[in-house]
Fold this sequence. Notes:
31% helix; Aminopeptidase; four-stranded antiparallel β-sheet; single chain; three-stranded antiparallel β-sheet
Amino acid sequence: MRGKVISKLKLVFPSEEYKNQIISYKEEFILNNDSMDGTSNLISYENIDEWLEKLKRNLKEETVDKGLVPATTYLVIREDDKRLVGMIDIRHKLNDYLLNFGGHIGYSVRKTERRKGYATEMLKLSLEKCKELNIEKVLLTCNKEKIPSAKIILYNNGILENEIKNGDKITQRYWINLKF
């Protein structure tokens, strides 16, 4: 873990209350030409209200978009100043693509909040949510060249199963056993 978490974090389901922060989060990623992992495709939505409605539909098998699996997206809020520092998407189950390349959890931390230990804490909080969803084994993936991501997974008891060629990149697949 690079940095020490300087503040307690909480996971919050996105709502109107955080609309301006969500817009700011998206703008920061666009400005930095950064990948918005774990945001349930926020980058594609001009209208945040439509994105918020999509997140509600994503919660259930009956209403999730065709080809996708049910998932819960969370805002990661720093408790002391209520700032949105990251986002997490927890897929309730895996399809073929997620089994090979995506995993159960996707997440991102805004650039201005990186190297503070937040991603490690975010993954820990995500694993607690996975337990609540009765997911006994959690799959996490990362690109092989993203060494900090691999370290975060390993710190949270991830065990490397294998590596899969994904175009010109290599995807590492890690499992975390939550069954005790």
